[in-house]
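Researcher: Hi, I'm a grad student and pretty new to this. My advisor asked me to get structures for two proteins we've been looking at. I'm not sure of the right format, so I'll just paste the first sequence and hope you can take it from there.
Model: That works fine. Here's the first sequence with its C-alpha cells right after it:
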Amino acid sequence: MDAPVFYYDLSSPYAYLAAQRVDEVLPLKPEWRPIVFGAVIRQRNKVPWSFADGRESHFDEIARRARERGLPPVRYPEGWPVETYSVAPLRAALLASDQDQRRAVSLELYRTAFAQGQHLADEEVVLDAAERAGMDREAVRSGIQRQEIKEQLRSDTDEALARGVAGVPTVAVGERLFWGDDRLEEAAAALAG
C-alpha cells in the first residue's frame, strides 16, 4: 500500500491539532501535503465552521482537545480567519528539502499561528518560522514567489479536490478519506487492517 497522505492547511486549528499527533497515531508515516483550504471550500460550495453560527462550540472543543493533549492554550491571530489567511506559509512548506523538513516547518508555522497567535499573512513572521525550522530565510523569501512553487500548490490542491477531499485535515489511505482531527484513529485502523 502507498503511504497515506496528510492533507492540511496552516490556517486550520483542527489541522494544527492533527499535525501534532498524526505521525504517532498512524502506523505508517504519512506524506505531508499542504493544500489551499480556501480553494476547497469554494469548489465544494461550503461555509466553514469558522464563519457559521455556533462557532463558539468549535472554539471550546479545540481548546478542550489542546488541553487534553498537553498543548499550549490555542491563541487565534487577531482577525482570524479572514485577515490572517495567506498561501505564503503553504508555499514555504513546499520549499522544504524533504518530508522531515516539511514536518518541521509546518509544525513551527502552526505553533507561530496557534500557540503564539501571530499572523501568517505577515511574510516576515513566515520567514522567522521557516528560519527557526532550519530553512534559509532568503531562499524561502524568493522561493515563495517562484512560479513552479505556485503551480505545485495549485496542482496539489487540484489533486486533493479530484480525490474527493472536502476539508482539512484529511488523511487519505488508498481510496479512503478520513476528514477531521477526530478520525486519525480510523485512518490508523484502515492502514493496519
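Researcher: Oh nice, that was easy. Here's the second one.
Model: And its structure:
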Amino acid sequence: MAAAVLTPSEFAQIADTCAAIANDAADDTGFVPVRDLLSRFRARLLIRPLLVEGMLASLSQPSETLPNGEQWAVLVDEEKYRVTEADVAAEICGRALPTRLRNTIAHELTHTFAFQPSALGVKLRTKFDTDKARSTLLQEIERQTERLSPLLLWPKRAIAALLLGKDKALAISDLTRVRKDMGISRDVLITRLKLLQENDPDRFLFSHGLRNLAVGIAEWGQGSLALIRARPLFSNFDRNTAPAFVHSLSNKNHLWANDLFDAPDLVMCGGRHTSLEVMTGAGTAASPNAQKMRIEVAVEDRERRPGRPFLFAVRGQL
C-alpha cells in the first residue's frame, strides 16, 4: 500500500483532541498535572533505567503493579529524570515537574494516536491495522509531535486566564510567570502561541494581550552579546506590519542581537538595560522598512552564561 500521510483535516482532529484532553485534565488554575494527563490516555508513568530519554510501551493486560486498567506505560530514564512517584503526585501549578520531563511525557503520549486513534475519538480515512501501516502512521505522528505536545501542556483555558483583563500586549514578566506556573519550556510556550495562527476559534490573537507582540528565544554568546534564534518565533502585528527584525530572521537560522536592534544600551546588545524602547523599521515581508515603529524590547533576566537561552518579547505600536 502507498505510504499513509495524515490529511490536514485528520491532523486537525488529532490536534483538537489533544486540546480537549488538556482542557479536561487541567485543574482550576489551568495547569495540567502529568498524573491527570496520563490518566486521560490510560497510561502509567514508569521510571526505569533506559538507553533513551523516554518511550511508550503497550500493556497487554494489567498486572499487580498496574491494576487500574491502563493500556500504556510511558517509561522515562531514571538517570536523566531523578523524580519519584511522590513528586508526580505532588505536582501543582507553580511547582511543576521539570519542563523537559513534562514535554517528554506529552511527546510519548501523542504516539498512542498511531495505535488506537478511535479510542481517543479520532476517525481516520484509512485503516491502520497492519504493522506496516501503523509504523507509517507512527512516523507521521512523530514528525508532527512537536505541534501536538504543546496542546497537551498549555490548555486554552489557561491561555484565556492569562489574557483576561489585559489592555496591552503581554510583558516579559507575564511570559516568564506563565511558563513557570504551567511547567512549560520556552519552545513549548512559543510553539503553542504559533499554533493559534493555525486554529484560533476563541480569537485569542485579537486580544490585547497578543496583539502587536513578538516572542522569541535568544542565547548568550561569548562576551556580552546574545544570539537570536530564528525559530521558534511568534509574531502577531496588526495589518501584518511587523518590526523589520521579524523579516530579517525569516530566512536565517540566527542573528546577533546588535545586528537586529539599534540599541547598544539593551542588555543583549552589550548594554545594561533589560527593557528599552527604540525606533525601528517596520512593514511587510516585501517592504520590511516601509515605515517606522516604536517598539519595547524586553529580555528575561537570567545569568549570562554562554549558551544559556532566554526569552525576549517585543511590543510595538504604530
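Researcher: Is there anything I should tell my advisor about the second?
Model: You could mention this: Residues 174-317 form one domain.
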